Amino acid sequence: MAVSFYEHVKLPGDAAGETLLFLFHGTGGDERQLVALGQQVVPGATIIAPLGDVSEHGAARFFRRTGEGVYDMDDLRRAVDKMGAFIAAHIGETQAKRVLGLGYSNGANILASVIFAQPNMFDQAVLMHPLIPFKPEIGGNLATRILLTAGRRDPICPPDLTNRLVSWLEAAEGDVVTEWHEGGHELRESEVDAARSFFASAAGQQEPAPIRQESGPRRGRYVYSIEGDEAELTYALSDGRMIIDHTYVPPDLREKGIALKLVERAVEDARERGLKVTPLCSYAAAQFRRHREWQDLLA
């Protein structure tokens, strides 16, 4: 049966059993490599962690490669089909309402490849240091929200390839957040924190973002302040409309999803106040294109 396609660990979550978290280890790891991390970033989730079925000089992987960064594409297709069936079987067995994925290195690559093939399978996914050296064929609009973490000095996953992957995901209407650190291929605590916040945000568990509103009769702004830096979204009010005309995030706060948080706050307030929204700012306009649930607010 497909639920047994891979050796794996399954750790039951809380009594509700509504959240299912799949974990995919890196080359040379095993099915337990990321379990503690998974429990840390999504407390209470049921965890499924498969062991890669390919051995490279004794190191477990999820698909074969012929060299560093050179993939056996036939074997990758085999792995995607097999893993997709494995994941679907466990989703069906648990009847989970929320399906999450987290993978590191080779595990991020197989997770990403499954998402390319089935862009509606996961609600959210964290890709830690993925290397995708080919242009993916994504099977439809990307419904999975993605956090991608990377190192600016990663010798295995160079930043230019990471940025290229982000651009491909965004071209497929993906909602993508990035988290960078200044190191290489190692996992750092900032990535763990980012993953925890990313998963918690959709579960309604995240503490309110430090955003304040400054409003006048005709103009206002939302401000995200931390450690002396300020990001802002400005707007005008006219004829029952909130006209978003500018967003700015200072360099030290970029690539943390803060601009999106500002737009989300503006949208939430506009809806509560019965206002329509005109997104003149290019960033806000792009977010409206990606968030179909906001379309009723457009003016």
From TrEMBL:
It comes from the Bacteria. GO terms for molecular function: acyltransferase activity, transferring groups other than amino-acyl groups. Pfam families: Acetyltransf_CG. InterPro entries: AB_hydrolase_fold, Acyl_CoA_acyltransferase, Gcn5-rel_NAT, GNAT_dom, GNAT_YJDJ. Residues 182-299, 214-299 form the N-acetyltransferase domain. This is Esterase. It comes from Nitratireductor basaltis.
